[in-house]
Amino acid sequence: MPSQLVLLRHGQSQWNLENRFTGWVDVDLTEKGVAEARAAGRLLAAEGLQFDVALTSRLTRAIKTLWLALDEMGQHWVDVERSWRLNERHYGALQGLNKADTTARHGAEQVHIWRRSYATPPPPLATDDSGHPRFDVRYAGLDPRVLPNAESLSMTLARVLPFWHDRIAPRLRAGQSVLVAAHGNSLRALRMYLEAVPEDKITGVNIPTGIPRLYQLAADLSITDVRYLGDAEAAAAAAAAVADQAKA
Over the stretch 156-189, which tens digit does the pLDDT of each residue have? Predict the structure, then answer.
């Protein structure tokens, strides 16, 4: 049966506003981020989408974005599943640093590699650092060995794909409509897989905040149509702004 999938990056967070590497740090939405999440919900409602299930990460900015979008659609009853596998890419020791300042210190090429390359992770967070996820109660039930101290996009993809195969794809094959509210890099990883984006092209893919991306899928989960909802030029401009964040 045909199915529908929506990927939605959370609205602007406080550290998006401050242009800081966020990763697994739990940062809330700004007022603009709340407005973006609600606007996303209105776009989904205007499209007439009715969701069977919604999935998100264990980070507040994605969870609240999902709540607000469902509220705008009047679909509060939709089952929600949270998973650490949908968390943002872990930015290691870069977390909390200003992106432009980091570029001024290390150079644009190095920061671009840390931000956007497929295989190169940023400098790792020390395992005894109080900010390491092994000290976070929301991951207390997990084997500490699966918790990252830094991730490349390839490592992010490796943790996202099992969730895709186990929790998302079966629902889509059953003809359900699925909403995934997550993060720039966990969604980049999914886009890379779904749209067969080559490794050398994924560096140019940027995900705008708060704009739903709708996939129409055939029974074998091949894509029959994909587009951002709303103004296409606005989505392109928002994605370009993400790419420019590290400029000194």
Answer: 999 999 999 999 999 999 999 999 999 999 999 9
The helix/strand/coil state of 207 is coil
- Residue 152 placed within a domain: yes
Q: Spell out the residues 6+ positions from residue 248 whose beta carbon is closer than 8 angstroms to its own.
A: 100, 101, 103, 104, 108
pTM given for the model: 0.94
* Catalytic site includes residue 81: no
Active-site position among 10, 90, 132, 183: 10
The sign one gets for the Cα dihedral 35, 39, 40, 45 is positive
Q: Tally the domains of the chain.
A: 1
- For 64-115, the pLDDT digits (tens) are 999 999 999 999 999 999 999 999 999 999 999 999 999 999 999 999 899 8
Reply yes or no on whether 183 is catalytic: no
Interacting residues of 5 by C-beta distance below 8 A, sequence separation 6+: 168, 172, 177, 178, 180, 214, 215, 217
The domain that contains 51 carries what CATH number? Answer: 3.40.50.1240
> Which of the following is catalytic: 36, 88, 151, 183?
88
Is the residue at 183 inside a domain?
no
Query: Could you list the residue range(s) of the whole structural domain that residue 168 is in?
Result: 3-29+36-55+82-172+202-243
Is residue 13 assigned to a domain?
yes
